[in-house]
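Write out the 3D structure for:
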Amino acid sequence: MVRANGIFKLTVLVIGFLLAVFLAFQLFEINADFKLANMISRSVPENDISTKPVRHKCGLSKACSAGHFAFKMASGAASVVGPRICLEDKVVMSGVKNNVGRGINIALVNGKTGEVVKTEYFDMWAGDVAPLIKFLNEIEDGTVVMMASFDDSATKLNDEARKLIADLGSSAINNLGFRDNWIFVGGKGIKTKSPFEQHIKNSAETNKFEGWPEVLEMEGCIPQRQE
């Protein structure tokens, strides 16, 4: 009887040992699978597991091809919010940068390198057109010229100033009137009219704001100068 009890206890111990070994292997297998899954998920590129859209320079809807500068710009909003110009993912002019003002806002860009050469604004309501004319005459050939209106950009414009801007590739400058909104990208020495221009008239019938038209926005890819 004692011997039978001993055999029974031994059998129970063996079964318990085998069960413990089996459970240990199961836990090891689960842990190994979990670690392997972790390693795989970490090795997968973020683009493959995320549906977040790709962001392009300046927030453009699509990327520019090689040999082009990405830009996005907006005119001023009434007399409250200044214009904004972004080039190659850098904000060049804006109210936050405190380098915009009433009138015509201008950024000059090196056509070869994309480097911003100068920014300036000229008050065309209470200011004088002479400094604008001097500024335009001093622009060097091959320079990209970006312009955006804020509040009123036309009252003090004269024929000389309008012609100088038209020579930069503008088609709308001769029709620019009191409190019109206007954005434009041209260049010194350009042989054709620029495709980068928008103009909206100040009209009581269509104005989005009281006394001012809606904000204009434009984006695109400026060809890099090769010469």
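The chain has four helices and nine strands.
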